[in-house]
Amino acid sequence: MIKKLRIKLILLLTLILSLVLTGVLLAVNISNYHAVTDVSYGRLNRIMASLSAPTSYFGSYFGNYFGSTDKYYYYDERGYEDNDIYIAFVGTDGNITNIAAQDDDGYSYEQISALTRQVLSETFKRGRIKDLIFIVKDFDYGGFGTSHIVGFMDNRSIVQSTQTMLFSSVIIFVFGMAVIVVAAFLISANIVKPVEETFNKQKQFISDASHELKTPIAVISANADILHEDIGENKWLGYILSETERMSRLINSLLTLTRLETNSENSTMQRFDICNAIMEVTMPFESVAFEKGVLLMCDLDEEIIVNGNEEQLKQVVAILTDNAIKHCYEGGTVTVDAKRIKNRCMISVSNQGEPVPYELRDKIFERFFRADESRSREENRYGLGLAIAKQIAENHHGSISVKCSDSTTTFEVII
What we know:
With about 425 residues, the chain is of the alpha+beta class. The chain has 10 helices and 12 strands. It has helices spanning about 1-50, 60-65, 110-120, 155-230, 235-260, 275-280, 285-290, 310-325, 375-380, 385-395, and strands at about 85-90, 95-100, 125-130, 130-140, 145-155, 270-275, 295-300, 305-310, 335-340, 345-350, 400-405, 410-415. The strands form 3 sheets. It has a 5-stranded antiparallel sheet, sandwiched between helices.
């Protein structure tokens, strides 16, 4: 139980801290991307702001300004000193009149022309296209139409910067996760330590108390037997014998559960046929089932070899079979089944009876839990049987669960 609790704490702490680390790194990367993008847009926007519309619609000035036939016309005097910036001039007729670039080693005239037409076909005035960011500046000439200046800036430096930051973030995340796992391991140890100490003290107390109680119970029982021989049948003496027997069963169950919890890793494991073991356990229950009017059936494969503690697994089958018979309707059927599932074995015990309420299906495996207190007292049950079965299953690195459908309740043990 303590081990499972610590694992859950480690997983929870790791999840929380990893989400925090992921959130921080994500925020840093997004902030960095927006920062460098804003710088680039600001840089391009300042250049675009220096460009203004001509003061005349006709004549040589209009033609001189927009009408250069050179593919690359360098406007050094206007400040185009960046080799990653391209400026496309588009006339009122929609034709590209000129493209200015400081250096043509990047995109060709034809590529910028195609990108300009693509940008103008959309409604966005700024954005990204391929490896470029762009800004569109419009000049409205009324009835003569609208001319445009489209500025492009190579965005690869931004992408490279963000990729570098992202790569650094991944490295930080990997090292951070390693630190988080170690931190979660250490923190969980400190958190679980008081719980573990309390739990160990509780187990030690139960073990010590049970051992101490065995002697007086044995003395009382022995003296009651001697009195019974001397005075014969007596109602009060019968009560003493009944209660001492009841106390003896309770003490033995407590000792069994404590021993299973304490020696969970030290059980003697061996290979054996679980089907033969089940048959040995269920045969004595045939008379009990017959007295209650219940049909006990075993549906077993020819041979299923498992690795485990034979006596403990027999105890599991005995607990579940006894439980199934007690809760089975008169005239109903109890079925004990074992089958191979891949490389594991599933033992199932089902009965036709009142189903276990959904909200109690996990609680019934807790120590001293009894769904029906009055009935449990009448039948001398203490709520330890299923807890013992669960501990044995866990000691075999398996699990136990209960399923209910219609009027059938099935306990499944996977080992």
